[in-house]
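The following record pairs a protein chain with its ligand, S-adenosylmethionine.
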Amino acid sequence: MAKDHWRQKQSLDKYFIESKAKGFRSRSAFKLKEIDQKLKLFTSNISILDLGSTPGGWSQYIAKQNHKKLNIIANDINVMNKINGVAFFQGDFTDKSIQETLINMNNNKKFNIILSDISPNKTGNKITDQYIFYDLVSNVLEFSKIALINEGKIVMKVFHGLGFEGFTNDCRNIFETVKFFKPKACRSDSKETYMIAQNIRYNSKNE
Ligand SMILES: C[S@@+](CC[C@H](N)C(=O)[O-])C[C@H]1O[C@@H](n2cnc3c(N)ncnc32)[C@H](O)[C@@H]1O
């Protein structure tokens, strides 16, 4: 019954309808579109890492922009069907060997942009879910210290609630600029928002 209600809500959702019409694999593509329209994230000649990429809405959105010489690398613990112009590697991002592989796929260079829409499966316990989530994205934050160029940007989904403040403080210790933006495409009843951080602080890479 609850599932039917969710399906009905989803099929009436304007972003869901638009994502089907435009051939996007997920309505999440519109969240990234709004972030990109606000911040002009993507340009030619840059490398982008899309973490938690499946089913592929964000990667599709980036690949559809007509920027030249983009190196788009995507990773998810689950499989993602092929997208032209995107190199996908499946695996658990928290695994160090997967992190090394992703850097290797970028010709052993640091990324200009790291995107993280990662969210693990819910357990049903809100406290546990927040704990697991922030443990996971803390890995992304640590990784950004070694895998992002100094002036690079990170765009990360985060959830208000337990762990949010501590994580935000960690981000402010690493990045000079930390901002938040909630795209209209986020469901209004969701605690999710997007953190956009830029410019790694001098020294934070050596801590
Ligand atoms: C909300 S979905 C991402 C949607 C995607 N941005 C899009 O536009 O289609 C979150 C993703 O995070 C992935 N994920 C969760 N834990 C992960 C992990 N440890 N490593 C890599 N991906 C993970 C999930 O498999 C899921 O596909």
